[in-house]
Design a protein that fits this description.
Layout (H helix, E strand, L loop, with lengths): L13 H7 L8 H4 L11 H31 L4 E2 L1 H10 L4 H12 L6 H9 L9 H26 L4 H8 L2 H12 L6 H21 L3 H27 L5 H18 L1 H9 L4 E2 L6 H24 L2 H22 L6 H16 L4 H4 L6 H32 L1
Antiparallel strand pairs: 1-2
């Protein structure tokens, strides 16, 4: 489905993938010129921290608001359409690149013309830039993965509470690590093993608190499915697209929304006429749908902006803050209790989430027990010997052919 032209470039580990959050790392050279000191009495580092505080609040509020609005729309008596909700919200992402491109052209460096900015941004699609083939090769599969992830997330909201869904979805960092270990040659460390264990314990406790009925089981499975699909999206983005700046990701999201608008509507129509999803055009919950879609745009923009201009840790903290905030909203407005078992399970998931974000230099200080290190060392020596043997055989074969 996808071809890897730059395979060796992207074996950078799980932490880079987690920092993407919608799959981005790095900054934009043309946009960084606009990152001027907005207050001469505050140091650049302090500015980043203040901006990061705003990012944390914005990400948490927008994520909670988008989730709660989506759930409210699905609770409407005349509306039961998770896929339509996803399709409609994704269409709003079309504004991502215009919101980036316009201010960059107006307030960016005078040396960077609009054409140059666009060429820098379309470089995310390869040397040839944006072509029909690059859209089909990259945007198409990622749009399907995006739609599947959001569909399972929204569908889960019709079965279990928003707080439960967000807590279970936070376990995606573990799945990112597992997939990175398989595809990106990620190193297995004790802290990451501990993070995986914490997340698994948290998921089990969340499932136990919901009871093992058929409905709650489906809701939990859908939330975990959304977490797995989200991890798949981010790891594949890291592997096949790589390190993208703010402008490139904005262009990518806009094209993804356009693909959703023009290519996924047949699925929506099919679900409607087969009565799998139902809604009444005369009684649509447009206020909730538009609120959810608008906040989703804010959420994704803040993630990409925050990664480009502040510290990636702020993005993770904003996501974590959204979990208890959803629980508070559920308790105050929906009267959904959040029992002590759910609290313990959520804390385990958050612990696993944060352990995955510990820098690699710190993780290297935590070592395996001596017996396991010896075992790994033996395996490492065996692998080196096998590589040397293969290299000698290849050299001998090449000599004989010459």
């Amino acid at each position: 489905m996808l071809t890897d032209d730059k395979d060796s470039k992207y074996h950078n580990g799980t932490k880079d993938v987690i920092e993407l959050e919608l799959a981005t790392t790095g900054g934009d050279d043309s946009h960084q010129s606009t990152d001027r000191q907005w207050c001469t009495c505050i140091s650049p580092s302090a500015q980043k921290w203040l901006l990061g505080l705003f990012i944390i609040i914005g990400i948490a509020v927008s994520w909670v608001g988008s989730t709660q609005f989506a759930q409210s729309s699905l609770y409407s008596p005349s509306f039961n359409a998770p896929f339509f909700t996803v399709w409609f919200s994704t269409v709003w992402m079309i504004v991502c690149y215009p919101l980036y491109f316009g201010p960059t052209c107006l307030f960016g460096s005078k040396q960077n013309k609009a054409k140059d900015i666009y060429r820098q941004n379309e470089a995310v699609f390869g040397k040839r830039g944006l072509t029909w083939w690059s859209v089909l090769k990259l945007i198409g599969p990622f749009c399907i993965c995006w739609a599947a992830c959001n569909y399972m997330y929204v569908y889960a909201l019709t079965i279990i509470s928003a707080a439960d869904v967000t807590a279970l979805f936070a376990s995606n960092t573990v799945f990112i690590y597992i997939l990175s270990w398989v595809w990106l040659s990620e190193t297995f460390t004790p802290l990451k093993l501990l993070a995986t264990t914490c997340s698994i314990i948290g998921v089990v406790l969340m499932a136990y608190s919901e009871g093992f009925s058929a409905d709650s089981g489906v809701g939990i499975a859908l939330a975990l499915g959304a977490a797995v699909t989200s991890a798949l999206y981010k790891v594949l983005f890291k592997r096949f697209v790589g390190d993208a700046n703010l402008g490139q990701v904005s262009l990518f999201l806009t094209l993804l929304a356009l693909f959703d608008l023009f290519c996924l509507w047949p699925i929506m129509v099919t679900l409607y006429f087969t009565d799998v999803e139902t809604w009444d055009w005369s009684d649509m919950p447009w206020d909730y749908l538009c609120g959810s879609a608008a906040l989703q745009v804010v959420y994704n923009f803040l993630i990409n902006f925050g990664i480009a201009f502040t510290y990636p840790l702020f993005i993770a903290v904003g996501t974590v803050v959204g979990i208890p905030l959803n629980a508070v909203v559920d308790f105050l407005w929906r009267e959904v209790p959040f029992g002590y078992i759910k609290i313990i399970g959520t804390l385990f998931i958050i612990a696993g989430f944060l352990l995955m974000l510990i820098p690699a230099t710190w993780q290297d200080k935590v070592r395996w027990p001596k017996c396991m290190r010896c075992h790994q060392s033996c395996h490492g020596n065996q692998d080196d010997e096998e590589l040397d043997r293969d290299a000698k055989q290849d050299a001998q074969t090449q000599t004989e052919e010459d």
